[in-house]
Amino acid sequence: MTDILIASHGHMASGMKSSIEILTGMGAQIVAVDAYVDESDYLPEIRQFVKNVTGPAVIFTDLLGGSVNQKVILEAGNKPNIFIVSQMNLSIVMAVLLDTEELTIQRLQELIKQSQVQLVTTKLDNSQTDDEDFFA
């Protein structure tokens, strides 16, 4: 199993954890760190996570170069078994959580590629009136 921490500005991390719990029932396997939501220091949570990692781990952050990402890099950037992924989305966190293959940098790159955002364009035909026709 891969250890996972999500760290973000505001409540994005706990919101993603909540969504993952609803979708998979596996939210308890994720550590969420919401930074700057109050006056408390979020660094001890990140340090504790890094200290407790025994196998491969991924720390997801919201913004590359943002303050949360910078602090994560300072705490975990030199750990060979911890990967740091910025610009996270729900898809990549779930892909890592649910993946059954050994986590390597190559595997993580594959999962990231599969989890990229996609533009979906639609042109609705107003003559379609029921769900059967709409999803055909």
Task: Describe the model.
With 136 residues, the protein is α/β, with parallel strands linked by helices. It has 6 helices and 4 strands. The chain has helices at residues 12-24, 43-52, 67-76, 90-98, 105-114, 131-134, and strands spanning 3-9, 30-35, 57-61, 82-85. It has a 4-stranded parallel β-sheet, sandwiched between helices.
The poorly predicted ranges are none
* Strand residue content: 15-25%
Give the radius of gyration.
18 Å
Write the element-wise H/E pattern from the N-terminal end onward. Answer: EHEHEHEHHH
Mean pLDDT: 93
Number of helices: 6
**Would you report the number of β strands?**
4
Shape: globular
Strand numbers in spatial order across the main sheet? 2-1-3-4
In short:
41% of the residues lie in helices and 16% in strands. It has 136 residues and is of the alpha/beta class. The longest helix has 13 residues, at 12-24.
